[in-house]
Amino acid sequence: MSTVQFGVGFGPTVPAPSVVEAAQLAERLGYDVFWVTDSHMAGREAMSMLGALAVSTSRINLGPGVSHLAGRHPTVIASAMATLDEFAPGRIRLGIGVGDSGPLNLGVPRTTIRDLEAAITTIRTLLRGEEAHGQTRPLRLSYLQKRDASPVPIYVAASGQRTLRMAGHVADAALVSGMPDELAHSIAIIRAGEQEAGRPAGATRILFWTTACVDEDREAARSAVRGSVARRAMNTFNRQLRDGQLAEPDREALERLQAAHQRGHIWDAGYADLVPERWIDMFSVAGTPEEVRSRLERTLADGADEMSMILMSARSGGRGSADQLRVFAETVMQPLRSARGVTA
């Protein structure tokens, strides 16, 4: 059976040395990838953080999860990736998307899918040491020699149909952050995009990205993800509402959630009455070790090549992130690998 890679998404909202410690722990526990959230108004600056991680780890892959074009020209992103690759050759990945909290916190629009596709093409060209088209002059990273391929794979964050199709056009991998039960459908759209672009079927690697919590206390695990589920539900259901595709029970729950946010309700602990139980399974993977393993096995069967999780802690006291890294590794990641005949 094929090897599956496991990654963890980490928001650098804690002091920078603590992020380094978390990445080192993830490496020791056998995780394959450590993604750093790129939202510089909400947490530490991602590219600076990744530089520190590149020289503080030796095996684990690293990347922004995910970057965006708000405040960063494609040449800046390309140069950052090339520089990181010198620190950690072969261990750097670029996660990129239209943007979420990054553009929102700057008060600017998200990038259009067309502009994102063009930027990805430019970034890949520059990382090959080649000349890319600029608005008024050719663009090139003068310190790079020409090479046959970019050393940095580009992962496109996608959930909507247009972004999924675009990922199939140009991405090395799609970071699919839609509903877990719709992964197979999302992959079919990516494959259609590959066909449109004349790429071979399967050219785009599939990474399933979700929020997760595992705990023997099922209700504690599910409670831990409610805040994240609320935010993802608002993003997804707003699109469906605009398209007239939102079912009535979800529309009513969405309106209650939106009204609460208008009143300034932002604390995760208060989402118990605002997030229907069924939404937790729609937008996250949370529960006992057995439940989480079963859910992720289905995800692998649906076609995921990799899985990366934003791990939420069901425990308080400041050590929750480290505890959840260990618990997920020991009760989910390692058993899944063993079942597939793979050791870390």
Short description:
By secondary structure, the protein is an alpha/beta fold. It has two domains: 5-216 and 288-339, Luciferase-like domain (TIM Barrel, Alpha-Beta Barrel), CATH 3.20.20.30; 219-284, no CATH class. The chain is built from 13 helices and nine strands.
Give the secondary structure arrangement, pairings included.
Layout: E1 5-10, H1 16-29, E2 33-36, H2 46-56, E3 61-64, H3 74-87, E4 94-96, H4 101-106, H5 113-127, E5 154-158, H6 161-170, E6 173-176, H7 183-196, E7 205-214, H8 218-224, H9 226-242, H10 248-262, H11 277-283, E8 284-287, H12 289-301, E9 306-311, H13 320-339
Parallel strand pairs: 1-2, 1-9, 2-3, 4-5, 5-6, 6-7, 7-8, 7-9
Helix pairs in contact: 1-2, 1-13, 3-5, 5-6, 6-7, 9-10, 12-13
Q: Would you kindly provide a written description of the structure presented here, covering whatever features stand out?
A:
The protein has 344 residues and is α/β, with parallel strands linked by helices. The chain has 2 domains: 264 residues, Luciferase-like domain (TIM Barrel), CATH 3.20.20.30; 66 residues, no CATH class. The protein has 13 helices and 9 strands. The longest helix has 20 residues.
* Largest sheet data: 9 strands, parallel
Task: Give the averaged pLDDT, no decimals.
Answer: 91
Radius of gyration over all CA atoms, rounded: 20 Å
The structural domain count equals 2
CATH superfamily of the largest domain: Luciferase-like domain
* Strand and helix order: EHEHEHEHHEHEHEHHHHEHEH
CATH fold field value of the largest domain: TIM Barrel
Count helical runs: 13
Question: What is the CATH class name of the largest domain?
Answer: Alpha Beta
Strand content: 5-15%
